[in-house]
Amino acid sequence: MKDLKKLVNLTGPAGFENEIGDLMFERFKKSKAVKEVKRDRIGNVYGIIPGKTENKLMVAAHMDEVGFIVSYISDKGFMRFAPLGGYDKKILPNSKVVFRDTKKTVKGVIGLNPPHAGGGDKVLEIKDLFIDTGYDKKELEKLGIKLGSVCVFDTTLDENENVYIGKGFDDRVGCSVLLNIADNIKMKPDFTIVLAATVQEELGLRGGEVAARTIRPDYALIFEGTYSMDTPGNRPDDWTSYFGHGPAITLFDRTMAADRKYIDYIEKIAKKEKIKYQYKQPRNAGGTDAGKIHLMDNGVPCCVMAAPCRYIHSAYTLMHKDDYKAMKKLGVALCTNFKYSDLKKIYGF
Ligand SMILES: [Zn+2]
Predict the structure, then answer these.
(1) Could you report the per-residue pLDDT of 12-40, keeping only the tens digit for each?
(2) What CA–CA distance (Å, rounded) separates 95 from 151?
């Protein structure tokens, strides 16, 4: 929870993940199991846990979240922006944003005319929206805001008995699974485990590709946040994943058809450890770093496991506490139970 809170409250839009990268780097360094911590030139952060063998298991999660990059500033200080990652333009007007790569934290809103002036009736395009901080262009410059400055939704983590409410669970929940493995793996694993916190997933799986090329893994596990639509008005065949029913395993999406032999192996471990999981409904849509990782070298079996989140890619997302717990438990269970000899029986080498 402490990690999750820090991770989601920080700012790390796609392409600008430094704050998250620094945190992951420092936290990996504090782990007893992690013997080596590295960062590559694109910004991916690696924590290496030596195993009994040199065969590599890559455990990946992406650090970036959706955000906005300033593309124009008027003299009065109104800022146009371009999207970093995908979100529904309908949710943007009247949301609060925060700039943190500045001399001091600057907050603003994405402006919308009030209803009696015609606002709210039509869906505005991103090019018609603007960020208003109340500062003019000169004042913004003094604060360090210029073309290319980035901001994210201004949301801090909240919770009740059942759920967390916050932004960026996609994929800080995965980052937090990585940290939990670093802290809680007790025995020396069979595989050498490379925990990989990647960048720019939301821009097209870019960091994941570099990470896979850097690590050259034999097998990979990807921890994610995905969408759950088990809400009023949606039929069960549209739910995609079921909130509160455990990590959702991807069988098929736009970027990968999962290898069932590998999924079976993972399910066996989850069952043995009594961890609840579900299948994500197959869709020819969406994708994760696995889309790039599984294509490396002579093929890398990948399994994507995601916490179901409601209202993903928005300022306020819900994640069930049971799903979060199960994700963390599954991460440690898989890293502990993965055996090279088992997988050799399946794949022949
Ligand atoms: Zn994601």
Answers:
(1) 999 999 999 999 999 999 999 999 999 99
(2) 12
Point out the catalytic residue in the list 17, 26, 125, 201. 201
Partners of residue 79 on adjacent β-strands: 73, 131
CA 109 to ligand 1 centroid distance, Å: 25
- Count CB-CB contacts under 10 A for residue 88: 10
> Distance between CA atoms of 79 and 66, rounded to whole angstroms?
18
Q: How far is the CA of 184 from the centre of ligand 1 (A)?
A: 24
User: Separation of 6 CA from ligand 1 center, angstroms?
Assistant: 18
Whole-prediction pTM value? 0.95
The pLDDT tens digits of the residues spanning 159-168 come to: 999 999 999 9
| Annotation marks residue 201 as catalytic | yes
Helix (H), strand (E) at residue 35: none
- Residues 243-281 as b or e (16 or more Cβ within 10 Å = b): bbbbbbbbbebebbebbeebbebbbebbeeeebbbbebb
pLDDT band at residue 113 using 50, 70 and 90 as cut-offs:
confident
Residue 312 per-residue DSSP state: -
Residues near ligand 1 ion, CB 5 Å cutoff: 170-171, 224
| Distance from Cα 139 to the centre of ligand 1, integer Å | 35
The whole-number average pLDDT for the span 185-189 is: 92
Q: How far is the CA of 280 from the centre of ligand 1 (A)?
A: 14
What is the distance in A from the centroid of ligand 1 to the CA of 23?
19
Query: What number is the average pLDDT over the span 174-184?
Result: 98
Q: What is the 3-state secondary structure (H, E, C) of 232-285?
A: CCCCHHHCCCCCCCCCEECCECCCCECCHHHHHHHHHHHHHCCCCCEECCCCCC
pLDDT of 52 over the 80 cut: yes
Please state the length of the chain.
349
